[in-house]
Each structure stands twice: as C-alpha cells, then as structure tokens.
Amino acid sequence: QVQLVESGGGSVQAGGSLRLSCAVSGDTYRSNYMAWFRQAPGKEREGVAAVDNDGSTYYADSVKGRFTISKDNAKFTLYLQMNSLKPEDTAMYYCAANRWRGRSLLLERSYGSWGRGTQVTVSS
C-alpha cells in the first residue's frame, strides 16, 4: 500500500498564494502517476492538476496559469503551488496516486490511492 499525507492548506485572501505538499510513503512504486483533486461543499470532486510518469503536467482550465504541479522523486513528495487564488478555489484538496496510467490523469477513477485532504479557504 501507499500512504499519502497532504499538508499546507490554510486560509488566505483572494490574490494570495499557498503551496500544498503530499508526502508519499509505503509502496512508493504505486505512485508513478499523481494528481491533485479538490471538492467544494455540495460539488463533485474534480481534477485540478496531474503529473505523468515522464514529467508531463496537465491542468484543469480553471487553474491554468495560476497553479503549478511538481514532483520531487528524491523526497517522494508532490507539490501544488497555487497563486492568484480566488474564492472559488475554496475546497478540500486531495492528493491521489496510482501505479498504472488511467485513460485521463484528471479523472477520479484513474487513481486507487488517496490522502485525507487539506482544506484551502480563500476569502474575498
């Protein structure tokens, strides 16, 4: 099994920045493909950003140009740098991982391992 633990969430004003981290432990070979998802109250979980096994990155249209996903393989850590935050970015953010590549790296069903989430709140 692989364990994922998110950190770095918090409360910021619109226009601010946060950096989320996801520490990977256990069977790290199960984390070849990783992503960040978020879920706001009353809404479905949505893919925010993903990183492929070759380092390619993918973003939801709503965060392109503002969020950056990166992975430090030496530290077994996934990051999400979030800039120019908006109130609509308020959500619980989850780290996800899978050993094999799914059809789309921004789809929830492409991942079998999940963290417990970290809350991000952006005030106007």
How does the SSE layout of this entry go?
Blueprint: E1 2-7, E2 10-13, E3 18-26, E4 33-39, E5 46-51, E6 57-59, E7 67-72, E8 77-82, E9 91-98, E10 113-114, E11 118-123
Parallel strand pairs: 2-11
Antiparallel strand pairs: 1-3, 3-8, 4-5, 4-9, 5-6, 7-8, 9-10, 9-11
Question: What's the gist of this structure?
Answer:
It contains no helices and 11 strands.
Give an account of the 3D structure.
Helices cover 0% and strands 51% of the residues. The protein is built from no helices and eleven strands. Strands 2, 4, 5, 6, 9, 10 and 11 form a seven-stranded mixed sheet that branches. A hairpin with a 4-residue loop joins strand 7 and strand 8. The model has no long low-confidence stretch (mean pLDDT 95).
Order of helices and strands: EEEEEEEEEEE
Quaternary arrangement of the chains shown? single chain
| Model regions low in confidence, pLDDT < 50 over at least 5 residues | none
Please estimate the helix content.
under 10%
Radius of gyration: 13 Å
Q: How many beta-strand segments?
A: 11
User: Biggest sheet: strands, sense, closure?
Assistant: 7 strands, mixed
Counted by DSSP, the helix tally is 0
How would the global form be characterised? globular
